[in-house]
Amino acid sequence: MAHQHTQRTHEQWLLDLTDIPTAAGREGLVVAWITAWVARRRNLVLTRDRAGNLFITQRRREQAGVARAPLFITAHLDHPAFVVLSVRAGEVELEFRGSVHDPYFENAPIEILGQRGRCSARIRSLDAKATPFKRVLATLDDDQATPLAGDIARFIFTEQPLPRIDGGLLRTYACDDLSAVAAALSAMDLLRVRTGMAHVGLLFTRAEEVGFVGALAACRARSIPKRARLVCLENSRSFPESPIGGGPIVRVGDKMSVFEPSLTNDIALLMAEHEKRKSGFKWQRKLMPGGTCEATAFSTYGYRSTCLCLPLGNYHNMVDIDDVLAGRRPAQVGPEFISVADFHGLIDMLVVCVEGLDSPTRPSLRGRMEELLQRNGHVLTE
Predict the structure, then answer these.
(1) Which in 117, 166, 222, 346 has the greatest CB count within 10 A?
(2) Do 263 and 173 belong together in one domain?
(3) What is the pLDDT of residues 319-328, one digit of tens each?
(4) Residue 155 contacts by C-beta under 8 Å, 6 or more apart in sequence?
(5) pLDDT band at 175 (very low <50, low <70, confident <90, very high)
(6) Is residue 277 included in any domain, yes or no?
(7) Beta partners for 201?
(8) Strand pairing of 44-48 and 54-58?
(9) Phi-psi group of 280: left, alpha or beta (phi > 0 → left; psi -120 to 50 → alpha; rest → beta)
(10) SS3 279
(11) Domain that includes residue 167, residue range
């Protein structure tokens, strides 16, 4: 019963967070939710660096004589979305901060969520070459509506209500990366009361969708301890070989780089051992070349970093991307979706790998190589 109650709590956080409007540079509503969450836990501390990235650390200290390198579970706070630039005579100009292919903007309905409430509009033109971000003009459905510059807007979907859990899937506005934020908080809520976990913290970055600039700013400012290890969480586009429902993924790389080998290998070995012990636990080990992850940014600046991810449907709210780009069907936006079982598996994966990485009895790849040499090395002397 306690386990079921904990899972329901984690699912509620998942529903809450993935419903919050957010955009690069406009992550304030998500930050407010996290700030309130931390305030209810006296043994956690929330700080911000100069770029506004969030660090959640523990008040307790490491045990005497123990010197573990800090370990941060990281996720980003934004999702591709529009930001209002100006409003005039029933027309709104917005810029789009993130990556969505041009056909998906055509005549697309959007909702604007801001200081004066909620209103809807429809895109009537796209300037795909505008810099630094694409721009659209949209016509307000109610010409009496008065959105303000700086308000966030997002696509409207025919599927309602959202967010919802149906048939084992979460369908919502922004799995990427708010479901990972929910998983990170859920794991921290379990780890903060366990012995030997005082070195574990969370890092939530801003503006990942426009070139992971929050993560880069943190690296440049050295707000992350140089000894730190970073386990980055992502939602990555699912492919046939990385199916939704197949379990959370130890991501070995992205389309730009391969992540830090020893950290990635250690986590994969821990997952292989966990799979043997826990009936029904599923996980995957994949490259996931559909995009670029913050682990690449962190490793470029010399940090030991790797990635765990959830396989994602309707990546960046784009339905049937390959068919649309090939001209086989018209573009349509839709809710992102993930497997709820994969979400719970990611929380489990985080707890297991964080507890196991510094264990003196954890499996190691070097140890397995030595075993092979010892067992079969006699053939070299025959």
Answers:
(1) 346
(2) yes
(3) 999 999 999 9
(4) 108, 109, 110, 317, 333
(5) very high
(6) yes
(7) 72
(8) antiparallel
(9) left
(10) coil
(11) 2-79+162-359
